[in-house]
Specification:
EC number: 1.2.99.2
Protein name: Carbon monoxide dehydrogenase
GO molecular function: 2 iron, 2 sulfur cluster binding; metal ion binding; oxidoreductase activity, acting on the aldehyde or oxo group of donors
Enzyme class: oxidoreductase
Pfam family, one: Fer2
CATH class: Alpha Beta
Number of helices: 5
Radius of gyration: 18 Å
Largest sheet: 5 strands, mixed
Helix content: 25-40%
Shape: elongated
CATH architecture: Roll
Bound molecules: FE2/S2 (inorganic) cluster
């Protein structure tokens, strides 16, 4: 792939040569080298170039959370993140959360609690929940609601989503309490670069 690409000119415009930037990412555990235009978002790179269509494009403006992925373990809105800025980062998408055929505990819990309906928001919700649990800031259901508030669900599955997340938080805190009361605890860290949610 060349480092520069000639864009087709539309009538009245001169052709432009765009410098492409080579970047290396580790995506779901696989070292991936690509060339990206300066304006390519991480979301577009994942979906359109790498074929990872789990992360969804909802608003494309950082308002719905459908595009949430984990970058170096932190949840971000991929639609607000330029791919070129993530050179060298470790990216985890919904496709990379399971361990082979074994679903991630959050995926299991979402199924168990019927926490998705149409499923459009679900990849973002689950990636965001994974980040939230890792952040260890949530202590209650209200905390989970607040810390997940950047993820919108048009199908109104919020109650079941909170229950699923709390179940996994409780299991992590006390591995013996499998289906226990969705406990109180968790967290959510900072989301940098304007990529975060409310
Ligand atoms: S697509 Fe809505 S926040 Fe990214
Ligand atoms: S399940 Fe439909 S948008 Fe959330």
């Amino acid at each position: 792939m060349s480092a520069a690409r000639k864009l087709g000119a539309t009538s009245g415009q001169l052709p432009a040569v765009v410098a492409m930037h080579p970047i290396t990412l580790r995506v779901n555990g696989t070292l991936t080298q690509v060339e990206v235009a300066p304006w390519t978002t991480l979301l577009d790179l994942l979906r359109e170039s790498l074929g990872l269509t789990g992360a969804k494009k909802g608003c494309d403006h950082g308002q719905c959370g459908a595009c949430t992925v984990l970058v170096d373990g932190k949840r971000i809105n991929a639609c607000l993140s330029l791919a070129v800025m993530k050179d060298g980062a470790e990216i985890t998408t919904i496709e990379g959360l399971s361990a082979g055929e074994a679903l991630h505990p959050l995926q299991e819990a979402f199924i168990e609690h019927d926490a998705f309906q149409c499923g459009y928001c679900t990849p973002g919700q689950i990636c965001s929940a994974a980040g939230l649990i890792r952040e260890r800031r949530a202590k209650s259901a209200d905390d989970v609601r607040e810390l997940m508030s950047g993820n919108l669900c048009r199908c109104g599955a919020y109650t079941n989503i909170v229950a699923a997340i709390q179940q996994v938080m409780a299991a992590e805190r006390d591995p013996g309490s499998a289906c226990g009361e969705a406990g109180e605890h968790g967290e959510r860290g900072e989301r940098g670069e304007g990529e975060g949610k409310a």
